[in-house]
Amino acid sequence: MADWIREPLHDGWAQALRADEMLYDSATDHQRLRVFSNPRFGRVLTLDDVVQTTEGDNFIYHEMMTHVPILAHGAARQVCIVGGGDGGMAREVLKHRRVEKVTMVEIDAAVVDFSKRYLPMLSKGAFDDPRLELVIADGAGFMRDTAGGFDVIIVDSTDPAGPGEVLFSDTFYGHAKRALSPGGILVTQNGVPFMQGAELTNTMRAFKPLFADATCYLATVPTYAGGPMAFGWGTDGDARTLPLAELAARFAASGLEPGYYTPEVHLAAFALPGYVRRLMP
Ligand code: SAM
User: Fold this and answer.
1) 8 Å CB contact between 276 and 216
2) What secondary structure does DSSP assign to 208-229, as a single string?
3) What is the CATH number of domain 3-54?
4) DSSP 13
5) CB 3.0 to 4.6 Å from 160: which of 8, 168, 213, 270, for a disulfide?
6) In the CATH hierarchy, which top-level class contains the domain 58-277?
7) What is d(CA 13, CA 213) in angstroms, rounded to the nearest whole number?
8) Which residues contact 222 (CB under 8 A, 6 or more apart)?
């Protein structure tokens, strides 16, 4: 009989995914890593039993964390991804032809190795792109020491527990801000506010004194269950106030063919419901 993998993420509420076939199950130095196949979502990657990404719905998360800041910026050449070991984020960033270099800082080499083998449909060759530099290191230490110059920094972290916890600290955000080029944009994954409100509040509290424009935007990803998920947005530039016509022109010129992102969705994603606004300091 097939197992149901229960995600131990929220107090008093859980989602479960049926694992018809367990393709991989092993503990790395950092976390327990599993891949299984599910009839609705295809291959599913979990770290410590928390869903990280699925073959079926990853496009929503990856498109919204890449195309929103990169198209809003308009001239991003240097991009940094913190985390992102499955390669899905690099896949979407590298679709932007003007991006010259992607520095991806992932703490766990095992996630990369094993994603290449069991989840090649996520990276789609991104690890072989000469524009990608993979650094196996703690993202917090990297950000403290880097010379920076990034036009866009994307924090594709696990939730704030285990190795991912430091990526939600004020110190890390301060170092990330310093590593941005003028007009640069920092985006972060901030969980599902209905379920993990404190995560968003803490990030926004840290962003407010750091950035002239500090807010979040939303997208609904089925396996990050419990409502729309939030992405932190911090910049000193005015990229968020771009008119639709300009954004649409950039999008048309990009040649992208996304499954979720459209310029209209991009702008609408910054419209926040009351309960999310109230979580923002
Ligand atoms: N989108 C997923 C989610 O929110 O459920 C997370 C994606 S997964 C690619 C996150 C990656 O962050 C994992 O590969 C993990 O190893 C990596 N990670 C966790 N802590 C890190 C740290 N301190 N520095 C760099 N990478 C880290």
Assistant:
1) yes
2) HHH-SEEEEEEE--TTS-SS-E
3) 2.30.140.10
4) B
5) 168
6) alpha beta
7) 34
8) 41, 56, 57
Which of 228, 235, 216 is CA-nearest to residue 260? 228
Instruction: Indicate which atom in ligand 1 lies nearest the CA of residue 163.
Output: 20
Consult the annotation and say whether 139 binds a ligand: yes
Q: Which residues, in sequence order, are CB contacts of 88 under 8 Å at separation 6+?
A: 53, 58, 61, 62, 122, 123
**Bridging pattern class, strands 180-189 and 150-156:** parallel
Q: Where in the chain is the domain with CATH 3.40.50.150?
A: 58-277
Using one digit for the tens of pLDDT, what is the confidence trace for 82-94? 999 999 999 999 9
Neighbours of 96 (CB within 10 A): 21
Record the pTM: 0.96
User: Which residues make up the CATH 2.30.140.10 domain(s) of the chain?
Assistant: 3-54
* Annotated catalytic residue 128: no
Q: Give the residue among 210, 226, 197 at the shortest CA–CA distance from 170.
A: 210
Catalytic residue, chosen from 11, 29, 156, 213, is 156
7 within ligand 1 shell (Cβ under 6 A): no
ipTM of the complex: 0.96
For residue 253, pLDDT over 70 is answered with yes
